[in-house]
Amino acid sequence: MAEQNKDAGELVRVRRNKLEELQSAGKNPFEIMKYDTTHHSMEIKDHFEELEGKEVSVAGRMMFKRVMGKASFCNIQDLEGRIQAYVARDEIGVEEYKDFKKMDIGDIIGIKGTVFVTKTGEKSIHAKEVVLLSKSLKPLPEKFHGLKDTDARYRQRYVDLIMNEESKGTFIKRSKIISKIRSFLDGQGFMEVETPMLVPNAGGAAARPFETHYNALDEDVKLRISLELYLKRLIVGGLEKVYEIGRVFRNEGVDTRHNPEFTLMELYQAYTDYNGMMELTENLYRYLAQEVVGSTTITYNGIEMDLGKPFEKITMVDAVKKYAGVDFDEIHTVEDARKAADEHHVEYEELHKKGDILNLFFEEFVEDKLVQPTFVLDHPVEISPLTKKKPENPDYVERFEFFMNGWEMANAYSELNDPIDQRERFKAQEELLAQGDEEANSTDEDFLNALEIGMPPTGGIGFGIDRMVMLLTDSSAIRDVLLFPTMKSLDAKKGGAKAEKAAAAEKKTAEKVDFSNVKIEPLFEQMIDFDTFSKSDFRAVKIEACEEVPKSKKLLKFTLNDGTDRKRTILSGIHEYYEPEELIGKTAVAIVNLPPRKMMGIDSEGMLISAVHEEGGSEGLNLLMVDDRIPAGAKLY
Length: 637
Fold this sequence. Notes:
The protein is of the alpha+beta class. It contains 19 helices and 28 strands. The model is unreliable at 505-520 and 591-622 (pLDDT under 50).
């Protein structure tokens, strides 16, 4: 307890001094190369009857120590759990006992001794030898509260794994899930393969890729967004059943179910279709639940989902009819689809066709209702550029998405193997790309060449491994199942400077600032006459918080600090240009006292940047990003 009350810097200094003393005495723990162990903690406890009285050797981190004169107790934590050790001076030696008393919580030690049970009935080790294997120079979080700050848990996963048994158990279970997936597919005759991560053409999904430059070849390349196109090439090559479990990268936002890099599994099987993929999916999920959870009924966030009975099947058209009351079989034109969308307040874009709007209805009204295992079949052709059309209705394709808990868990196709049709689909995607759709695919000539060589009828499916792990471990966020999730970088010096500037800004909210040398955000450089804009009535505001608006692909919700005690909450339709994390901490110029607007663009005077409205009020606010050093409340002159 005394250690907890010391300054953190003093604790580090004390531990470093202990290390220096050990090194001076020729006992440098960092010179130890190995330590032979015979058992783990839980192994000793589980097999106590056969190990009692026998000598064992364990190693791990000391998590507790209680010194009582000539004898002490400590707890050592390893991969499987914790076990108590009884350490007596007369057993290990006077000098060795002195060294033990100087050891700190968090030190990594090795213990050799005999297995016994204490008077209180605790299975323990009677130590004959205690060796300091590695010195911990920084103290662990306070033992009763652990590492509760979620941001710190994600950034310092190594500390989280030490302090939180539940967290460590989640990642052990994740490893088991992936191992069981491999076991299942290997038993079905699938071959595991590896395909490129750096690609000239990132296709196979609707997503914006990350781009980089390959110096050796002097070429721009992208990080893959999918595994699909290379795996299909292998089907062309005669490998009839292939799968890959690997990282893919999508330049998109971060929320409880999305991370820009995530683990995807895709598999392809020749001579089957999406019905074969449904059967495989049902069997795989049932097998995993039984192997990992021990039951075909799983519970997530208190909701039971039954994987034991046949999964429900429903077409996308029937699902929208069921939950939104709109029958797209009765809608025959784009104009009729837009009219239905307007009546039901479903946002759409000018480039959207009937099938796109059907999908928007599905996302708005259906997805969150699909809690029990459900296959949603027969998607519109507009959103499925790599899928075979249904012969009886070419407006739709043989595709399903698998849903549980309101989440899309898998996406499967009867794969398109007609190279002529595929070229036309790519052409349609190219048109969308030209209209500004950054998630559209571009033509992959080598893939088309492979299809022209000939690909058999094939069923294919992609599984989101991270969401699968979330469900099977009852984890609330994707970051809880990623060992090292993507986080905004911390810069201690920059953070300190920001704090100083923020403090100064509070004293000078009315001070005028010369904006003449401020660089306008590149997004707006061609959209605005800054001289005209600068004559408007506005003030600088700090973006204190920013998040996505649920069920909207365009809107971001901002909390703004205008230099007063009042916090403004506004909505802005700039999500296609920015992710929420990019904007937090930035300064924006806000034009005030303008009528609220709903669309992005330029107003009649050429000044409007992104029209937003304040929730619960009529005051319009229009944002322009500027230098983040400008204090909130500053006026332009």
